[in-house]
Amino acid sequence: MKCSQCQQAEAVVHLTQMTDDQVTKVDLCERCAAERGLETASAVGKTPLASYIAAMGQGINDTVVAGDLAFVCRTCGATLQDFRESGRLGCPQCYRTLGEPLRELLRRLHGATRHTGERYQLPGQSQEPGRPEPGHVKLREQLKQAIESENFELAAQLRDKLKVNE
Amino acid sequence: MIDLSLLADGGLGWLDASGPASHLVLSTRIRLARNIETQVFGSRNGVVERESILQSVEGAGRGGVLMRHAVCFRMDTLEPLDRQLLHERHLVSKELAGLDAEGRVRPAAALLVQDRLGVLLNEEDHLRLQGMRSGFALEETYAEVDRLDSELGQRLPFAFHPEFGYLTSCPTNVGTGLRASVLIHLPGLVLTKEISKVLQGLGQVGLTFRGLYGEGSEVVGNFFQLSNQTTLGKSEQDLLDHLGKIVRQVMEYEEQARQVLLRDAPAIIEDKVWRAYGLLRYARTLSFDEMMNLLSGVRLGVGLKLIGGVGLYTLNKLLVHCQPAHLAAAQGLSTDDPSLAVQRARYVRKLLDDEAARRG
Hints:
Chain A contains nine helices and two strands. By secondary structure, chain A is mainly α. Chain A is elongated. Chain B starts with 24 loop residues before the first strand and ends with a helix.
């Protein structure tokens, strides 16, 4: 079957779309599919992350998958194949370079992507200028909640505490 | 043969049954996974790097207070029996001891231990800080481990990301890196067949359960390790509060189940716990699993005040000292020696006899 867009190459993606209650079928070749931001089944099979994420189920944007296909960590040399096989990342830098697919995995594992626990400063590093202390952030959150719940007495106390801290 | 007397309480302070709710909770353990920023994670690390991690962490520990006088056990210099001993004392994981499926000790795998605190080195993560206490004591255990974390974190560059938190080899531990476990005895829920509902419920509230020796181990003697499943998205305090709340609930269910047993089948329960005690007191051979099941019955009897001639501390001691490596080491045998079951029964009889004589 020929691609319904370029009418030249063999179609490898077969889409069934719903538009205004009308069912339409589109057959696309690999190149035309890629132009529309769609990952083909054959391309998915060729790359470990895509297979890995495909196995994880839905929820991943195809274009995101396409953007992270060639991951090899520059620091430790770990590839997505390694990650898929062992379930372990190679080094701290892997976290910094993996990007969105990692967030999706964390969302599935933990139901969250952001650390909200204790903050850490490397030895010898002081608090970044202008960056509030964690306790400060908590106080501000509590203040916001107190105002929202119209607990003005508590809000006043929290505001005073914040002033003292500042 | 390693000298465990070098450790405070032989590393067994957690089983003295002195902690809160000791009649239900054997111990509380908390571990924090940490890695060194400049190093690749354990699974990809070379021997030289692993050695350097061991040196720098030991140096950092000795430069502080909480690990200044730590005993260091290098797993790669220990005999298998010694490694198993440490594992049976819950001081090292199966993986660190080289007792997992791979069956080999990783280079520079080591344990630093001082009082109730320990650091597992060169496991899956570079450091696993751990604290263990008797009974149900999440706050106190965390406070100690947290102090050790601060002390080491000031001397070593831990891998930390503003968005993802503490970075770990496995993404299941990232964020706080915190795993808190409570080892709890639940015979009432097992006997009333309510346990599966409770365990299923745990999964729904983000907790998980494991066996006596943690990850990958089987449940023996009705002991369950309840712990947090996720490590990211909640603060350390929230994780501890949540686990604490659920453990208290499980403890309540267990107490209720015990009251139901006493109310509906008092003669059967009384018979069951005394039979368990009788078998332990007079048996001539005991496998570890059989002993654990009988100890569970006796522990239930002690909890229900049906049996008075034995204390929880003695039951805890039996639990540790009748494990294969402990018995084998004490008797100069190998862990697969067929006479171990006879030695175990003899040891149990002696301890129970002594205790009964002492208590009159």
